[in-house]
Structure formats: C-alpha cells, structure tokens
Amino acid sequence: MLSLDEAIKITMSGVAPLGCEQISVEAALHRVLASNITAERDQPPWDNAQMDGYAVLSGDIKTASPNAPVGLRVVGRVMAGDAATVPITTRQAVRIMTGAPIPLGADSVVKVEDTDGGDDIVQIRRASPPGAYVRQRGEDVQSGSVVLHSGEHLTPARIGMLAATGHASVSVYRRPRVAILATGNELVEPGLPIGNHQIRNSNSYTLAAQVCECGGVPVRLGIAVDTHQDLREKIARGLSSDMLLIAGGVSAGEADLVLTVWKELGVELKFWKVAMRPGHPLAFGTFNGRPLFGLPGNPVSSMVTFEQVVRPLLFALSGFTGRSRPLVEAIVSAPIYKPRGFCHFVRAAVSFVNGAYHATVTGNQGSGILSSMVLANGLIVLPEACEHVNAGDRVQVQLLTTLP
C-alpha cells in the first residue's frame, strides 16, 4: 500500500505557484509576493530628530549640567514636514520636532526635557554627544536596495514597508480557487429541515474553513446525491477550479461512484488508498494539470487527510514556502495501541508544562467523532512500524495551533 510520504511526493511533483496579479497594498495582507520590492529612496531620506527638543552643536554643550546650564540663542524652528532652511553655527540652536530634518551644522539633538524650553535663549542642562537623538539618513533602508523578496508572506510589517517605500500596488501570486463537493443521500445543509435518518453536511464547511486558512478561495458546490448523473454534473462543474475536493464516495461501497465518474470525465488517477488512519481511502488525480482529491466522508478523516496531503499542495500553489505544521516531541499521558502498517494520527490536547510538551488523547478516536477533533490542538504521529506507546513515552506531535 502507498505510504503517506509517497503520496505526498506524488501530489507535490512538479507543483508551481499559480499566475500573478497586481493588487492594492490595502488588499495584500497574507498574500505572497511574486517579485522583489526595492526602495525608491533612502529611508529616512535625511537625518532627522528622534525626539522633540533642540538641534545643536554638541561641542557647545559638552560642559552643560543641571547646576551649570549652557545658554544658546534660538535662531529658528523646524517641524516635521518642513525643510531645514536655517543653518546653525556655534552657540546657536534650532527648536526641532520629532521627524523634522536636522539643520545644516547641527550634529546632535537635546531633548526638551533637558532644557528650560526657552524661545529666544534656551538653557541646556545636559550634555549631548554627537549623533544623540538623530536618525541617520538611510539607517532603515537605502535607495535601490531590496527590502522584500519574492515568495515572502505579506505580514502587517511588510505591508508597512511596501507603503514606506512608495508602493501603492504589488504583484502577488493568485489565490487558488478550490471547489468543494460533499456527496451522500444522507446529507442535509445546515438550517434546512432534516429527517430522522439524515445528518448535517459539515464537511463542506470544515473544508472551506481549512482552505481559507491556507489562503485559498473556497467555492462550495453543495451536495451531490448518490446518483451517477448528479455526481457527474457537479464534478464536471468543479473541474474549472484550480483544485477540486470531494468529500465521500471514494470507498469501495455500492454508492461510491467518484472514481468511476473521474474515469469517464478523463481524470488521471494517480493513487487510491494510503497507509494512514484516519484517511485510508484517499484518492488523488489530475485533470489538465489541476489536482483533484477524493477525501473520506467521515469528518475527522476528511480533516486529517486535508492537513497531511491537501494543505502542503495548496500552500505551494499559493506561492508559500516552509509552511508545514510544527512538529514537537511530547510526553504522552496514557498508552496507545495501533495496528502495524498504518501511520496513525491521534487527536490530542497538547500543553507545555515545566519545560516540556505533554499530549493527552482527546477521547474516542473514531473517524466520525468530530468532538474529539474540536478538543484537539495537535495530532500524535505514530509511524507505520509502531504498534504501541506507553504512558510517559515521548512521541512526535504535529501542532495544529500555536500554544500560548
């Protein structure tokens, strides 16, 4: 049977980011840069004041102290946004505000708190060495330098850098459109009347949320009942998206028609069934280079297979790199048993106590027990060769959220 590592290798083979688009900086948060960003000029573009105070020649005030202040003649005032038109010479000062350019001749700024705040004559009560409270030209970025690189994730700080370097728009990789289809006669949408033998369609909403978390754009196709015609029609609609996710219909039952329809529509099946639990009946194919996944219908199986196989592919299509879930070593609180030959992902509540991670299984591990996934912030990873772990053993855990 195909191992999970082999399955991931197949799905990721030859994957490249989708095309680029130009968008406004305001809309670029959490997108991925598609080109390098260079600075249009030095930042800051001139030496400027770090504090409100007085621009001075440091040599004039090297003896200043609270008991023996030095008086300087105030010859001007400069605000942020003004040009520093008044130069200073010895025994002179210019009143200056934070961000204002340093006047020609000055080499230091004295904080207003270290003066008497005088308008004509200012008494300086503390020495200020050369460069004190002066932001140097180009100390942040220099003209023509690359400030952001292609492939970087646009965080709030990087958005600020785009604006600071004069970029009103930016080239980013396109977000993948992911069609999502749930299958099964038993499914009913939330909010609609439900029969005694029916269940709610949760997979479509869970998968849509997972797609959004990875930067994709979910396109829900609704529910396909277990008929050849309805399934074929809705799958055909989904083939125009960048990726298609189908929840259910990929096992070996009489109503599991997904793979039959794939074949009819010209989908190239790459693999079916992977040595993992939950998520064993996972199918993957391509249509005109676009990936299709047949995910198990049980809600936990659907979520776990998305995490392990779909998520890395979706990030790669979006241009992200290095976005795998963090793996940590944790101490397991109770024994766990599993059959040999399958990689198991065990839902767990993970905490960090006294310098170590600890993992506690979140109850019933059935693939339909969504509540155990709600309680989990990590998945204990038990490899194929493992048959059991004892309480107190150290195990690998895939973190699903960032721990406080």
Structure overview:
By secondary structure, this protein is α/β, with parallel strands linked by helices. The protein is built from seven helices and 27 strands. The strands form eight sheets. It has a six-stranded mixed sheet, with helices on both faces. β23 (343-353) and β24 form a beta hairpin. The chain is elongated and about 95 Å long.
How many structural units, i.e. domains?
4
How far apart, in Å, are the first and last alpha carbons? 39 Å
Helix content: 10-25%
Number of E-state strands = 27
Q: Tell me the radius of gyration.
A: 31 Å
SS strand fraction: 25-35%
Shape: elongated
CATH superfamily of the largest domain: MoaB/Mog-like domain
| Main beta sheet | 6 strands, mixed
Features of the shown structure:
404 residues, alpha/beta, Molybdenum Cofactor Biosythetic Enzyme, Chain A, Molybdopterin biosynthesis moea protein, domain 2, Molybdopterin biosynthesis moeA protein, domain 3, six-stranded mixed β-sheet, five-stranded mixed β-sheet, 7 helices
Write the layout of secondary structure elements.
Elements: H1 4-12, E1 20-24, E2 37-38, E3 48-49, E4 53-56, E5 70-78, E6 92-96, E7 108-111, E8 121-124, E9 134-135, E10 146-148, H2 156-164, E11 169-173, E12 177-183, E13 187-188, E14 199-200, H3 203-213, E15 217-224, H4 228-238, E16 243-247, H5 258-265, E17 268-272, E18 276-277, E19 283-287, E20 290-295, H6 299-318, E21 327-332, E22 336-337, E23 343-353, E24 356-361, H7 370-374, E25 378-382, E26 388-389, E27 394-399
Parallel strand pairs: 5-6, 12-15, 12-16, 13-14, 16-20, 18-23, 21-24
Antiparallel strand pairs: 1-11, 2-10, 3-9, 4-6, 4-7, 5-8, 17-19, 19-20, 21-27, 22-26, 23-24, 23-25, 25-27
